[in-house]
Structure formats: C-alpha cells, structure tokens
C-alpha cells in the first residue's frame, strides 16, 4: 500500500471517520496494510499477521472523505 494512502487512512482513523466493512470503527492506526488488486479494500497487518477476515476489511474510499 502506498505510504501516502496509509497516511490518509491514519488521519481518517484519528478523526474517527474510518470503519471496517462490518461498520466497526477503526481505532488503531495502521502501520501496514494489504490492498486488494482492485484497490477497493485494505486489510490491516497487526503484529506481522495479515487480518484477512472480511469484517476487518477497510473500504479505501474513506481515506478521501473530508
């Protein structure tokens, strides 16, 4: 995932605007994430473990929200 997108997501997380696909707010900043091939979803990597369950998915267009 590009560093600039990761920074945008973390800014949205800090502002309380980023949610997982199950509508749970993301509360921890992302150090790393995997992005799907279609660039629509990201999955966090926590303690070097990719969190690839559907409910952990983050819709990437949230990064661009004001």
Question: How would the blueprint of this fold be written?
Answer:
Blueprint (H helix, E strand, L loop, with lengths): L2 H12 L17 E4 L5 E6 L2 E2 L7 E2 L7
Antiparallel strand pairs: 1-2, 2-3, 2-4
What would your notes on this structure say?
- A hairpin with a 5-residue loop joins β1 (32-35) and β2.
- The chain has one helix spanning 3-14, and strands at residues 32-35, 41-46, 49-50, 58-59.
- The chain has one domain.
- The mean pLDDT is 90.
- With 66 residues, the chain is α+β, with helices and mostly antiparallel strands.
What key attributes describe this structure?
66 residues; alpha+beta; four-stranded antiparallel β-sheet; 1 helix
TL;DR of this structure?
With 66 residues, the chain is of the alpha+beta class.
The total domain count is: 1
| Percent helix range | 10-25%
Alpha carbon gyration radius: 10 Å
Based on secondary structure, the structural category is alpha+beta
Order of helices and strands: HEEEE
Major β-sheet profile: 4 strands, antiparallel
Note poorly predicted spans.
none
Return the average pLDDT rounded to an integer.
90
Note the gap between the termini.
Answer: 21 Å
């Amino acid at each position: 995932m590009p560093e600039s997108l990761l920074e945008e997501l973390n800014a949205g997380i800090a502002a309380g605007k980023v949610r997982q696909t199950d509508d749970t707010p993301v509360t921890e900043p992302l150090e790393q994430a995997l992005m799907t091939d279609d660039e629509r979803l990201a999955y966090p990597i926590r303690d070097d473990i990719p969190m690839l369950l559907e409910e952990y998915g983050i819709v990437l267009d949230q990064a661009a929200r004001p």
